[in-house]
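About this split. The held-out portion is used to measure sequence recovery: a designer receives only the structure tokens and must propose an amino acid at every position. Recovery is the fraction of positions where the proposal matches the reference. Here is one held-out target exactly as it appears in the evaluation file.
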């Protein structure tokens, strides 16, 4: 296995156990001509509307990484701020054109 594939297959720290805010995997529209986009959502109070929201984009240069890379930290942040957090799995470099990638990031989805 090459180094890039080994890095892409790395395991990240597991989510904190309840009562911590639990991550939920969802899929949203991927933009014109693109498949659905996977996101991880952390919502400290699903019944409460109009809460602040944070869109989390992990590092990795569009080459490596997953939305779960910082879930334990995002669980704590979501609880402390009372904010909905959406961690996005961006397309890997070369999978879509840059313009499409930027449109996804700037669309405010979900």
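Reference sequence for scoring:
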């Amino acid at each position: 296995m090459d180094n890039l594939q080994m890095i892409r297959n790395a395991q990240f720290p597991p989510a904190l156990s309840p009562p911590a805010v639990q991550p939920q995997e969802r899929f949203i529209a991927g933009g014109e001509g693109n498949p659905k986009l996977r996101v991880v959502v952390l919502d400290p109070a699903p019944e409460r509307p109009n809460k602040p929201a944070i869109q989390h984009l992990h590092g990795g240069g569009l080459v490596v990484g997953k939305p779960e890379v910082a879930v334990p930290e995002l669980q704590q942040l979501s609880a402390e701020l009372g904010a909905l957090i959406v961690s996005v799995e961006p397309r890997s470099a070369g999978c879509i054109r840059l313009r499409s990638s930027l449109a996804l990031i700037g669309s405010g989805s979900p």
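Annotator remark: The chain has three helices and four strands.
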